[in-house]
Amino acid sequence: MQSLHYILTIFLLNTAALVFISNNPVHSVLFLILNFSISAGILFLFEADFLGFLFIMVYVGAVAVLFLFVVMMLNTKKLIKKELSFFHYCAIKFVGAFLFLCIDEQIQLSFFNFSNNNVILNEFNTRILNFDTFSNTQLIGQALFNYYGIAVLIAGFILLIALIGCIILTISIRTKLDATVKQLSRKNSSHLFN
Amino acid sequence: MLLHQLTTNTLLFIIGFLGLTFNYNSLLTTLMGIEVMLLSASLNFITYSVYFNDMYGQIFSIFILTIAASESAVGLAILIVYYSLRGSIEMNYNSKNKG
Q1: Can you give the pTM of this predicted structure?
Q2: Are A124 and B50 inside 8 Å of each other by CB?
Q3: Do A70 and B5 touch (CB under 8 A)?
Q4: Is B55 helix (H, G, I), strand (E, B) or coil?
Q5: What CA–CA distance (Å, rounded) separates A64 from B1?
Q6: Which pLDDT score, from 0 to 100, does residue B11 have?
Q7: Can you tell me the ipTM of this complex?
């Protein structure tokens, strides 16, 4: 299982890098889908089944397909990838290494504060995770709807606002008028009986 | 294994951040960078949740998922409006910012 985790991790990082490296936007969206799927696989490995399925449903099924729709809709063939110079590559590597060192130091510090308690560490390594006798889905449902009801409502409201915002943004006055004229000038009888 | 996964999440975040900042290509790549960064944050929550045998990291991850979905939807709608106004989604500031 350890080796499987290593392999999945390597694929995760490589696909994440290929999202930004690849020239064609369609390819980069497909790599994004692969990235989300591999992260769902890592969650299955962690025994967070519900979140894994949710990642596949929401990220792969909704978000990435939305990206794919937009890429197909827009004319992205005109896009010409600019070749980065040597200085740019050096700058990217330098900034990346600097950020990694900054964040990794904090992670190491927090990790060694936790790792004084070896019991928890061994438990994580051997993966004996029993949240009592409930399944993962049941537990998330219990906690979500018992203690986080208002948060669920707010999340639903945010989704509603996003929906309305998308519709208002993409609808333009001209297309609306065209649609109205087309609908009013349509003959009902021909529409029904032909 | 915890440290390994945390390092992976950090690297994923940094890849997303660098792709967000250092792209000279299109505005679509920016949104993908934000998605990758949100994914790494969500994975970090879930990792600690599994490590501590605690449920609340996974619940927070669901809310991050909600925000990510709505953010990408609104961002793509803005991108479509930008395309219909400008005719392209290139990030070429020199030719677009005239006057």
Answers
A1: 0.81
A2: yes
A3: no
A4: coil
A5: 29
A6: 92
A7: 0.89
